[in-house]
Amino acid sequence: MGENKFVVEDSRVVHEGKIVSTEILSVRTPDGDLVERQVVRHPGAVAVVAIHDGCVVLVEQYRAALDDTLIEIPAGKTDIPGEFLETAARRELIEEVGLDPQSLVFLGDFITAAGFCDEALTIFASNDCIEVSRQVDGVEEEYSEILRIPLAEVDGWLTGGRLRDAKSLIGLFWARDLGLLAPSA
Could you give the angle at the alpha carbon of 116 between the alpha carbons of 111 and 118, nearest 5°? Predict the structure, then answer.
């Protein structure tokens, strides 16, 4: 890879919100020009491909940014300072679907929208969850629906257009590639 010849010379916060903040960066280009870039800062997130009783557990919930409902793997922000990613993943799985993973397998991580945002998302899988009481955190979770998709049907969900959420598609493809979604799993 080539050497990075872009240099951030200045940044200023123009919005500080509950979930994200926005900065304007002054960036010096390799040609010496100074350009401005708007960047959304996000604390990051975790998600879990939860396999329980021969099913993948998904959540159907309202997403205000789309004014629509999406079907997703359980996920949430890593917004507690010092919290380990595995701890955040466990917390989110308990909150959203009432499953407590006894172990988590790291599937991978990725940047969600590098063109304007620094959000990094880490995905785990678990196939040894114990059912517990949900600890709903937020109105969307309160009105969400938990879906259980038999492992034999997951491939149809991956290619059938019902899943539109990137983290869910990525996580399920990764889990499938590792053999975690085989119906005998």
Answer: 40
Catalytic residue list contains 141: yes
* Residue of 140, 141, 142, 153 marked active site: 141
Kindly report the pTM of this predicted structure: 0.91
| Structure token pair of residue 11 | 């940044």
Asked if residue 78 is part of any domain, the answer here is yes
Helix H or strand E segment including 159: helix 154-159
Q: Is residue 182 part of a domain?
A: no
Residues 27 and 118 reside in one and the same domain: no
pLDDT tens-digit readout, 114-128: 999 999 999 999 999
Whether residue 101 sits in one domain with residue 26: no
Half-sphere exposure of 40 (CA within 13 A, CB side): 15
How far apart are alpha carbons 41 and 44 in whole angstroms? 9
User: Is there a single domain that holds both residue 89 and residue 162?
Assistant: yes
| DSSP H or E run through 15 | strand 7-16
